[in-house]
């Protein structure tokens, strides 16, 4: 076996540098959202579009697991699906996200229908699912490693939303609190798996490229929101129009 150019530590540092330079915590839309600068409709647009990501993540993980021949790897991975879809004792991330939708005044059935999701959001998220279906398992696991950087943005988001928006409370933000508990185990496993399996220069390069691809998937979703809903707003055909999908008065009371 050829020796990799970089040790585990050196390769991990390379992956973390990709996050430092390209993760979506750097995007102006997130700065606006967390800093209290979003209008209620901009927050709603974010909730609607981000739901499409949430609803696709378990399908992505099921696509991954369908390709894994090693029972031990499937066993380590399957809690990701349960974290989002729920179990008998855990309502799951998708339900929690819909609670956030209600808190910002949206009809959860509308949000769950995925109507009004921006075309560019669909393209970006679908590309991630397809990537995981088609690329090597190493590239698929490496792409999930943006989650290395997610706990910091979730903590910042909880703090920023609570400070700046009337809708924000512990129930509305329970999705992010749950992720703070769930993500570290996934990320520790995924990182170790990538470090162990990227055992040649070529594999390290492929894993780094997969992580860059994933940062692009996340960035493109925020670019889509910025273009459609931040002045000069340009909502593309099919995109949510403010006023649509709101909770009915009866439901809200
Ligand atoms: O709010 C965020 O910024 C953020 C980012 C990411 C990410 O980095 O992909 C995920 C999540 N949240 C998240 O909640 C989540 O469940 C999740 C799963 C995955 C994945 O690729 O498997 N990423 C993310």
UniProtKB/TrEMBL annotation:
Annotated Thiaminase-2/PQQC domain residues: 13-223
Record keywords, A-Z: Oxidoreductase, PQQ biosynthesis
InterPro entries per the UniProt record, alphabetical: Haem_Oase-like_multi-hlx, PqqC, PqqC-like, Thiaminase-2/PQQC
GO molecular function ontology, one term from the record: pyrroloquinoline-quinone synthase activity
EC number: 1.3.3.11
GO annotation, biological process: pyrroloquinoline quinone biosynthetic process
Catalytic activity: 6-(2-amino-2-carboxyethyl)-7,8-dioxo-1,2,3,4,7,8-hexahydroquinoline-2,4-dicarboxylate + 3 O2 = pyrroloquinoline quinone + 2 H2O2 + 2 H2O + H(+)
Highest taxon above the source species: Bacteria
Pathway(s): Cofactor biosynthesis; pyrroloquinoline quinone biosynthesis
Function: Ring cyclization and eight-electron oxidation of 3a-(2-amino-2-carboxyethyl)-4,5-dioxo-4,5,6,7,8,9-hexahydroquinoline-7,9-dicarboxylic-acid to PQQ.
UniProt similarity note: Belongs to the PqqC family.
HAMAP family for this protein: PQQ_syn_PqqC
Record-linked PANTHER family: 4-AMINOBENZOATE SYNTHASE (PTHR40279:SF3), PQQC-LIKE PROTEIN (PTHR40279)
Protein name (database record): Pyrroloquinoline-quinone synthase
Organism from which the protein derives: Paenirhodobacter hankyongi
Phylogenetic placement of the source organism: Bacteria, Pseudomonadati, Pseudomonadota, Alphaproteobacteria, Rhodobacterales
């Amino acid at each position: 076996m050829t020796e990799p150019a970089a040790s585990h530590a050196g390769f991990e540092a390379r992956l973390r540098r990709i996050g430092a330079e390209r993760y979506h915590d750097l995007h102006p839309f997130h700065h606006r959202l967390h800093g209290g600068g979003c209008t209620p409709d901009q927050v709603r647009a974010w909730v609607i579009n981000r739901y499409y990501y949430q609803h696709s993540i378990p399908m992505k993980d099921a696509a991954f697991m369908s390709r894994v021949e090693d029972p031990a790897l499937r066993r380590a991975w399957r809690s990701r699906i349960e974290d989002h879809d729920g179990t008998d004792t855990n309502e799951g991330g998708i339900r929690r996200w819909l609670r956030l939708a209600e808190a910002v005044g949206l009809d959860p059935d509308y949000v769950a229908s995925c109507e009004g999701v921006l075309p560019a959001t669909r393209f970006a998220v679908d590309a991630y699912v397809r990537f995981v279906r088609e690329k090597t398992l190493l590239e698929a696991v490496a792409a999930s490693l943006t989650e290395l950087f997610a706990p910091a943005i979730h903590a910042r988001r909880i703090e920023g939303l609570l400070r700046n928006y009337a809708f924000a409370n512990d129930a509305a933000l329970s999705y992010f609190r749950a992720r703070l508990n769930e993500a570290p185990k996934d990320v520790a496993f995924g990182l170790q798996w990538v470090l162990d399996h990227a055992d040649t220069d070529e594999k390290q390069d492929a894993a780094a490229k997969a992580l860059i691809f994933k940062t692009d998937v996340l960035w493109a979703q925020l670019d889509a929101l910025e273009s459609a809903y931040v002045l000069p707003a340009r909502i593309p055909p099919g995109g949510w129009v403010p006023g649509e999908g709101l909770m009915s008065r009866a439901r809200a009371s």
